[in-house]
Amino acid sequence: MVVFVKDLCPECLAGSLDFALNGDGRWDIQIQAIQCPVGNTKIEYKFQGSNPWYIKLQIRNARIPATHVEIYQEHSRVWKALQHTSDGFWVFSPNDHYEKPVPENIQVRLTSAHGDQVEDNFRIRN
């Protein structure tokens, strides 16, 4: 059986799943990550509350989840890592120094759980 894990269970132990069924949600199961069945769709980017001084980005339709996301800083010519949030988005760390305003055209580098990298360009749309 293939199931999609959408979000976190704050009260669960690491690696646990809560199926929101009667009982306490604990089942005797084994978990194995597989490629997401996204077909021929392209990677998509969803923004939440992003503006020229803040970016909150979600990666969608990736066959293998991104475990590291970076945005290219054009003026300093360096890649700056984004921090993964508990709600499945990526943001600049509050303590990190990054170029502002955030450009409308963004160059992003995604690293998968397998170590594969993809570079992409897109335009911010809220």
From TrEMBL:
Signal peptide limits: none
Entry-linked InterPro entries: Expansin_CBD_sf (IPR036749), Expansin_CellWall (IPR051477)
Keyword vocabulary terms for this entry: Signal
UniProt cross-references to PANTHER family, sorted A to Z: EXPANSIN-LIKE PROTEIN 7 (PTHR31836:SF21), PTHR31836
Name of the molecule in the record: Expansin-like CBD domain-containing protein
Biological classification of the source: Eukaryota, Metazoa, Spiralia, Lophotrochozoa, Mollusca
